[in-house]
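On clarity, I found the account of how folds are encoded harder to follow than it need be. Since the whole study asks how a given chain folds, the encoding of that fold should be made plain. For the editor and my fellow referees, an illustration may be useful. An entry of this sort, consisting of the sequence and the corresponding backbone structure tokens, reads as follows:

:::
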Amino acid sequence: MYEIKILSKLVKDVTRIKNPKVYFIGLDREEIKVFKKYTNIKVTLSIKDADFVFVKNLRRPLKINKPVFSLDFKSLKYCKNCFGVFSWRNGRPMLIIFKEVINSLKIHLPEDYDYFIDSKKYILSG
């Protein structure tokens, strides 16, 4: 539930849309069902209709022109325009937002996120 609150807030802060639509790639039905149950964000079945995309378990390159956020580190290899990643490490939530990507996509986030912004090169090299 904690993860859903973080991700829901992120979607709204990135899109700046009152009722954004989210599309999921690679998540199972149960994960999507939980997201739908505990947020007021609409889940869409069409990537064309989406304002925001979450990816997980990617196995091939993804090229879309929408805000994309990864829910695992492995997917970053296939998602060059993912602007960040959320994952769990040692039982603790980890949110990282990539400075270079948010700048190139012209995403402006509230100051609350400053702590989570880092360079993609440091994250992927480590």
Summary: Residues 2-15 form the longest helix (14 residues). Helices lie at 2-15, 29-38, 99-104, 120-125. The first strand starts at residue 21 and ends at 25. Strands lie at 21-25, 42-43, 52-55, 68-70, 82-89, 92-98, 117-118.
